Protein backbone atom coordinates (compact mmCIF):
# COMPACT_ATOMS: atom_id res chain seq x y z
CA UNK A 1 0.00 0.00 0.00
CA UNK A 2 1.44 3.38 -0.92
CA UNK A 3 2.01 6.10 1.67
CA UNK A 4 -1.08 8.13 0.71
CA UNK A 5 -3.41 5.14 0.91
CA UNK A 6 -1.82 4.15 4.21
CA UNK A 7 -2.51 7.63 5.58
CA UNK A 8 -6.26 7.20 5.11
CA UNK A 9 -6.55 3.48 5.88
CA UNK A 10 -8.34 2.51 9.09
CA UNK A 11 -8.32 -0.73 11.02
CA UNK A 12 -11.57 -2.56 11.80
CA UNK A 13 -11.70 -1.27 15.39
CA UNK A 14 -11.21 2.31 14.18
CA UNK A 15 -13.94 1.83 11.57
CA UNK A 16 -16.32 0.41 14.18
CA UNK A 17 -15.74 3.40 16.46
CA UNK A 18 -16.23 5.81 13.55
CA UNK A 19 -19.52 4.16 12.55
CA UNK A 20 -20.67 3.98 16.19
CA UNK A 21 -19.97 7.69 16.60
CA UNK A 22 -21.51 9.18 13.45
CA UNK A 23 -23.50 6.31 11.91
CA UNK A 24 -26.80 7.68 13.22
CA UNK A 25 -26.29 10.83 11.09
CA UNK A 26 -24.10 9.76 8.16
CA UNK A 27 -23.82 6.52 6.23
CA UNK A 28 -20.29 5.17 6.04
CA UNK A 29 -19.44 2.94 3.09
CA UNK A 30 -16.82 0.47 4.27
CA UNK A 31 -14.75 -0.47 1.23
CA UNK A 32 -11.90 -2.95 1.33
CA UNK A 33 -10.21 -6.05 0.00
CA UNK A 34 -12.03 -9.37 -0.16
CA UNK A 35 -11.97 -11.22 3.15
CA UNK A 36 -10.71 -8.38 5.36
CA UNK A 37 -13.64 -8.57 7.79
CA UNK A 38 -15.86 -5.73 6.59
CA UNK A 39 -19.06 -7.57 7.50
CA UNK A 40 -17.61 -8.60 10.87
CA UNK A 41 -17.68 -4.93 11.90
CA UNK A 42 -21.30 -5.74 12.84
CA UNK A 43 -20.01 -7.75 15.81
CA UNK A 44 -17.74 -4.92 16.95
CA UNK A 45 -20.62 -2.44 16.65
CA UNK A 46 -22.89 -4.73 18.66
CA UNK A 47 -20.30 -4.68 21.45
CA UNK A 48 -20.03 -0.87 21.28
CA UNK A 49 -23.81 -0.39 21.10
CA UNK A 50 -25.41 -3.20 23.16
CA UNK A 51 -28.81 -1.43 23.11
CA UNK A 52 -28.98 -1.81 19.30
CA UNK A 53 -30.08 -4.84 17.30
CA UNK A 54 -27.92 -5.80 14.30
CA UNK A 55 -29.83 -6.06 11.01
CA UNK A 56 -28.08 -7.22 7.84
CA UNK A 57 -29.66 -6.49 4.47
CA UNK A 58 -27.82 -8.72 2.00
CA UNK A 59 -27.86 -6.64 -1.18
CA UNK A 60 -26.44 -9.35 -3.45
CA UNK A 61 -29.64 -11.36 -3.74
CA UNK A 62 -32.25 -8.59 -3.76
CA UNK A 63 -34.31 -6.93 -6.47
CA UNK A 64 -36.39 -3.77 -6.19
CA UNK A 65 -39.53 -5.79 -5.40
CA UNK A 66 -37.80 -7.18 -2.31
CA UNK A 67 -37.73 -3.77 -0.61
CA UNK A 68 -41.49 -3.27 -0.23
CA UNK A 69 -44.58 -5.46 -0.31
CA UNK A 70 -47.91 -4.04 -1.53
CA UNK A 71 -50.80 -4.01 0.93
CA UNK A 72 -54.34 -2.84 0.20
CA UNK A 73 -55.49 -0.25 2.69
CA UNK A 74 -58.69 1.67 3.19
CA UNK A 75 -59.20 5.23 4.39
CA UNK A 76 -62.74 6.56 4.71
CA UNK A 77 -64.02 3.96 2.27
CA UNK A 78 -61.36 4.82 -0.33
CA UNK A 79 -58.98 1.98 -1.20
CA UNK A 80 -55.32 2.63 -1.88
CA UNK A 81 -52.08 0.66 -1.98
CA UNK A 82 -49.63 1.07 0.87
CA UNK A 83 -46.16 -0.41 0.58
CA UNK A 84 -44.86 -2.26 3.62
CA UNK A 85 -41.06 -2.38 4.10
CA UNK A 86 -39.34 -5.74 3.94
CA UNK A 87 -38.76 -7.26 7.38
CA UNK A 88 -35.02 -7.42 6.63
CA UNK A 89 -34.82 -3.61 6.82
CA UNK A 90 -35.71 -3.76 10.53
CA UNK A 91 -37.95 -0.68 10.60
CA UNK A 92 -40.75 -2.69 12.24
CA UNK A 93 -38.63 -3.31 15.34
CA UNK A 94 -39.24 0.24 16.66
CA UNK A 95 -35.89 0.16 18.45
CA UNK A 96 -32.36 1.31 17.64
CA UNK A 97 -30.81 -0.88 14.98
CA UNK A 98 -27.44 -1.24 13.29
CA UNK A 99 -28.42 -1.62 9.63
CA UNK A 100 -25.74 -3.00 7.34
CA UNK A 101 -26.36 -2.82 3.60
CA UNK A 102 -23.94 -5.69 3.02
CA UNK A 103 -22.25 -5.87 -0.40
CA UNK A 104 -24.04 -2.73 -1.64
CA UNK A 105 -21.64 -2.49 -4.59
CA UNK A 106 -22.91 -5.82 -5.97
CA UNK A 107 -26.57 -4.84 -5.67
CA UNK A 108 -28.91 -4.51 -8.61
CA UNK A 109 -28.89 -0.81 -9.63
CA UNK A 110 -32.60 -0.56 -8.77
CA UNK A 111 -31.86 -1.76 -5.22
CA UNK A 112 -29.11 0.85 -4.83
CA UNK A 113 -31.63 3.52 -5.83
CA UNK A 114 -34.28 1.96 -3.58
CA UNK A 115 -32.15 2.05 -0.41
CA UNK A 116 -30.68 5.48 -1.08
CA UNK A 117 -33.36 7.24 0.99
CA UNK A 118 -32.69 4.92 3.93
CA UNK A 119 -28.99 5.66 3.68
CA UNK A 120 -29.43 9.44 3.39
CA UNK A 121 -32.61 10.27 5.31
CA UNK A 122 -33.10 7.26 7.62
CA UNK A 123 -36.54 6.76 6.05
CA UNK A 124 -37.96 3.49 4.73
CA UNK A 125 -40.80 4.68 2.54
CA UNK A 126 -42.93 6.74 4.92
CA UNK A 127 -41.50 5.15 8.07
CA UNK A 128 -38.60 6.67 9.96
CA UNK A 129 -35.90 4.55 11.57
CA UNK A 130 -35.48 4.93 15.32
CA UNK A 131 -33.42 8.15 15.77
CA UNK A 132 -30.51 6.28 17.37
CA UNK A 133 -30.29 3.76 14.51
CA UNK A 134 -26.95 3.38 12.74
CA UNK A 135 -26.68 2.77 9.00
CA UNK A 136 -23.56 1.65 7.13
CA UNK A 137 -22.70 -0.34 4.03
CA UNK A 138 -19.94 -2.67 2.90
CA UNK A 139 -18.45 -3.29 -0.52
CA UNK A 140 -15.29 -4.64 -2.11
CA UNK A 141 -12.76 -2.56 -3.96
CA UNK A 142 -13.88 -1.92 -7.54
CA UNK A 143 -10.38 -2.75 -8.80
CA UNK A 144 -10.74 -6.35 -7.59
CA UNK A 145 -13.09 -7.10 -10.47
CA UNK A 146 -15.84 -8.86 -8.49
CA UNK A 147 -18.60 -6.54 -9.69
CA UNK A 148 -18.67 -3.86 -6.99
CA UNK A 149 -19.75 -0.57 -8.52
CA UNK A 150 -21.60 2.38 -7.02
CA UNK A 151 -22.75 5.36 -9.07
CA UNK A 152 -20.67 8.47 -8.36
CA UNK A 153 -23.68 10.45 -7.10
CA UNK A 154 -24.43 7.71 -4.54
CA UNK A 155 -20.83 7.41 -3.39
CA UNK A 156 -20.47 11.21 -3.12
CA UNK A 157 -23.62 11.50 -1.01
CA UNK A 158 -22.22 9.19 1.68
Number of helices: 5
**Spatial strand sequence of the major β-sheet:** 1-8-5-2
CATH class: Alpha Beta
Weakly predicted, low-confidence segments: none
Specify Rg, calculated over alpha carbons.
Answer: 17 Å
CATH topology: Rossmann fold
Q: Helix coverage percent of residues?
A: 25-40%
Largest sheet: 4 strands, parallel
Order of helices and strands: HHEHEEEEHEEEH
Query: How does CATH name the architecture?
Result: 3-Layer(aba) Sandwich
Overall mean pLDDT score? 85
Tally of distinct domains:
1
Secondary structure layout:
Blueprint (H helix, E strand, L loop, with lengths): L2 H6 L3 H11 L5 E5 L8 H8 L4 E6 L9 E8 L2 E8 L11 E6 L6 H13 L1 E2 L2 E2 L5 E7 L11 H6 L1
Parallel strand pairs: 1-8, 2-5, 5-8
Antiparallel strand pairs: 3-4, 6-7
Helix pairs in contact: 2-3
Outline of this structure?
By secondary structure, the protein is an alpha/beta fold. It has 5 helices and 8 strands; from the N terminus they run H-H-E-H-E-E-E-E-H-E-E-E-H.
Explain this structure to me?
- There is one protein chain.
- The protein is α/β, with parallel strands linked by helices and 158 residues long.
- The protein has one domain: P-loop containing nucleotide triphosphate hydrolases (Rossmann fold, 3-Layer(aba) Sandwich), CATH 3.40.50.
- The strands form 3 sheets. It has a 4-stranded parallel β-sheet with strand order 1-8-5-2, with helices on one face. A two-stranded antiparallel ribbon has the order 3-4. A two-stranded antiparallel sheet has the order 6-7.
- A hairpin with a 2-residue loop joins strand 3 and strand 4.
- It is globular and about 60 Å long.
